[in-house]
Each structure stands twice: as structure tokens, then as C-alpha cells.
Hints:
By secondary structure, the protein is mostly helical. It has one domain (about 1-105). Helices cover about 70% and strands about 0% of the residues. The chain has helices at about 1-10, 20-45, 60-80, 85-105. The two termini are about 20 Å apart.
Amino acid sequence: MSGVRRQAGVAEPFASDPRFWGAMASSADAAAALVLAIAGAILLALSVGGLWTMLPFALPLAFLARAALHGVASARSSRAAFGADGRKGWRDAERHAVARAFLPVLCRPRLRARS
Length: 115
């Protein structure tokens, strides 16, 4: 993930916040899992039907819950860097950081060979 951090070029306080990167990774994993869940749900709808078609969406939902927890913790810590009057500045900086980081995090290698 450190290579992704350098590649993304995210500004502080987000660049050094592991919770920000955890939220980004979980969000990207949820997006990737959602594509797989849709394909799985279609296959289940064609073969089994019923409530089984909802089962593949459990994994993206778990990733989204994890992203929300990391995101809330990250927001609490990073807002302090902008002070009491810096809410708009923090919001704009966070949006910029997410926009710069999401694609590199989405394209990161997820599986590593054990050495």
C-alpha cells in the first residue's frame, strides 16, 4: 500500500493517516466485490432463484461497513488539523484526497505471493 500512497500524491493530513487509507481500500474492495456480487446474483437468479440471489451482496456490504468505520475515525482525526473554522477547507481537502487516491487504490495488487 505504501507504493499506492506515493503514487496517489495525497496531501497531509490524509497521506499519513492509516485510517484514511483503510477506508479507501475498503471502499475500493467494496466496488470490486460489488461487480462480482452482481455476476453471482445473476447466476443464482438463473439457477436457484429466491432469496439466494441476495447472498453475494454480503461481502460488499461488509466492506462498506468497514469503510464507514475507518472513514468516521479518519474524519475525526483529520478535522482537527483544519481547526474549528476550517470545516469547508477540510471538506474540500478530503474530497480532493479521495479523488486522487481512489483509482490507484482500486488498481492496487490485492494478492501477494508469499516468499
